[in-house]
Write a structure and sequence with these properties.
Number of strands: 0
Distance between the termini: 52 Å
Largest sheet: none
Strand content: under 5%
Mean pLDDT: 81
Low-confidence stretches: 10-16
Oligomer: single chain
Order of helices and strands: HHH
Number of domains: 1
Shape: elongated
């Protein structure tokens, strides 16, 4: 169902094509979230920073490969965008773990 009139030759805004594109953008975000949560346990700041950077780049390349974007002509743009999305997921994962840890510490008092 479209929310308004649909021009001839145009798909409604809630088409499956756009939903599929949205799901493709979730792949790097979920990978970043997993990286942020899993690498939170590394105590050395430099080691954690380097590990997160390397994992984010690798996950960005992996997400582009999974989405089939590496065979396009501008593959480097897709990889960089997916790497940025992974970075956003990492920030979300680190924030989630920090917030849950603070909440657990507060509830124990």
């Amino acid at each position: 169902m479209a929310c308004g009139p649909v021009l001839p030759g145009r798909q409604p805004s809630h088409s499956l094509g756009e939903a599929g594109h949205f799901v493709k953008e979730l792949v790097p975000l979920v990978l970043g979230l997993a990286i942020g949560v899993s690498l939170q346990g590394i105590r050395l700041t430099r080691l954690r920073g380097g590990s997160i950077a390397a994992a984010a780049v690798a996950a960005g390349i992996f997400a582009s490969a999974v989405n089939g974007e590496l065979k396009d002509k501008g593959w480097f743009l897709f990889v960089s965008i997916d790497t940025l999305l992974v970075g956003l997921g990492v920030i979300g994962g680190l924030t989630l773990v920090a917030a849950l840890g603070a909440r657990l510490r507060y509830s124990r008092q």
